[in-house]
Amino acid sequence: MKRDAILVTGGTQRLGLALTQHFSSKNIQMIATWRTQKPAVDKLRCSGVDVVQCDFNSMQDVRDLVAYITDSYESLKAIVHNAGVWSVDDFSSAESADRLMQNLMRVHVTVPQILNNELHMLLSRSQSETADIIHIGDYVSSRGSVKHIGYAASKAAQDSLTLSFAQKYAPKIKVNTIAPALIEFNDTDSAEYKNRSVKKSLMERHGGSDELIALVEYLMGSNYITGRVLPLDGGRHLKSA
User: Fold this and answer.
1) How big, in percent rounded to 5, are the helix, strand and coil portions of the chain?
2) Among 205, 228, 97, which residue's Cα sits nearest to residue 150?
3) Above pLDDT 70, what percent of the chain?
4) In the predicted model, what is the mean pLDDT of residues 202-222?
5) What CA–CA distance (Å, rounded) separates 93 from 57?
6) Which contacts (CB < 8 Å, 24+ apart) does range 116-122 have?
7) What is the pLDDT of residues 127-161, one digit of tens each?
């Protein structure tokens, strides 16, 4: 059985992919979950990453993921909860609002809670002095969002998981949230949108995946930081001060 792997959910695209590739390049055994097939899945598999299909909308998939990891690995160094759903609110009907909120809460709260509960024994067996659970949250969790009310609420609930699990699993397992803003643009974002967005932060630039990787490395390198929501927002909270 393999020891001290790192699990990254949603680890085959965008920031999750950057994290998976970074740690894999350091000869760390990586487990990356994916929901839909994409070219990166096969490339990661060929490079030695353990890529596992898991649709968080299926509790059977989640149970199968837990069973696979516990059967295949003796210990984990970290779980990075990167999988996410980004959606504009849909209040066109009570049913649509309910479906959206259930999906947001399932991906951002329910499944991370299940994985934390079911895999914490593997984290406790890490060869490192401390192991890590890191939730990739969002800047809006502390401010709310007029256009993304459900999303912001689910990310705030995810922050609460950090507070609770940090207390539950100390001192062996540290639990933190990273709350980013404007880290990476989409390929379809217009130049006008990019220019308007970067002006929302003091640094007047987007962060880039390297900034997220550096903060994940910082948290994993510490044996003291736990129960915190760490902003990664370029000073955006001071822009209107």
Assistant:
1) 45, 15, 35
2) 97
3) 99
4) 91
5) 21
6) 116/79, 116/161, 116/165, 116/169, 116/175, 118/66, 118/70, 119/7, 119/66, 119/69, 119/70, 119/76, 119/79, 120/169, 120/173, 122/69, 122/70, 122/73, 122/74, 122/75, 122/76
7) 999 999 999 999 999 998 888 999 999 999 999 99
Q: How far is CA 67 from the centre of its chain?
A: 21
- H/E stretch holding 105 reads helix 94-105
Catalytic residue among 139, 151, 169, 224: 151
- Residue whose tokens read 């049913």: 95
Entry field: residues in the chain: 241
**Phi, psi (deg, nearest 5) at residue 182:** 55, 55
Residue pLDDT, tens place only, 2-49: 999 999 999 999 999 999 999 999 999 999 999 999 899 999 999 999
Residues 21 and 45: their CA atoms lie apart, in Å, by 11
Please give the full DSSP string across 29-80, using - where no structure is assigned: -EEEEESS--HHHHHHHHTT-EEEE--TT-HHHHHHHHHHHHHHBS-EEEEE
Q: What are phi and psi of 51, to 5 degrees?
A: -95, 130
- At 5, list the tokens: 């792997």
218 is known as an active-site residue: no
Give residue 240's pLDDT band: very low, low, confident or very high (50, 70, 90).
low
pTM, entire model: 0.94
Within 10 Å of residue 40's Cβ, how many Cβ atoms? 20
Residue found by looking up tokens 């059985």 in the block: 1
Q: Which pair of tokens denotes residue 198?
A: 């970067």
pLDDT score recorded for residue 62: 98
